[in-house]
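Could you join me in thinking about how sequence relates to backbone shape in a protein? Would you write everything just below, so we can both look at the same thing?
***
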Amino acid sequence: MDFEELIQEINQDWTDIYYNLHYKHDDNLSHHAVRLLQHIEKNQYVTIGGLAELLDVSHNTASEHVKRLIQKNFVQKKRDSKDERKVYVTLSAEGKAAVNQHTRLDPKKLEKVLQQLNEDEIKTVKTTFSMLSREVKSCF
């Protein structure tokens, strides 16, 4: 199997899927802001230092990004109850909604596509995405 060609095909298919099925965005969030929100959503204990590492920026720059997200009501800072020196960044309800809008497929659009498939095809799609998700989590 030619992995280079397969990777190109998967990437093309993925971008077609996301391009056609993503939500329309009304807000004006930067790519960095969306990445930060997504990282916070996927990880339980997120610090400013961890966000700086994610973006490959200084602690101060990450802190400025977080301040903007706090001003937009997308995140809040919370002190660790056992060690008050530790401060974690968590999503607010608005932050959860924003990360959903920017990283997920629109359920109505996806349903319309799935209704075009037969039961076996739907099972194949579900199995394939579940398998890819499982393997990605085990690799990274």
Notes: DSSP finds seven helices and two strands in the chain. The mean pLDDT is 95.
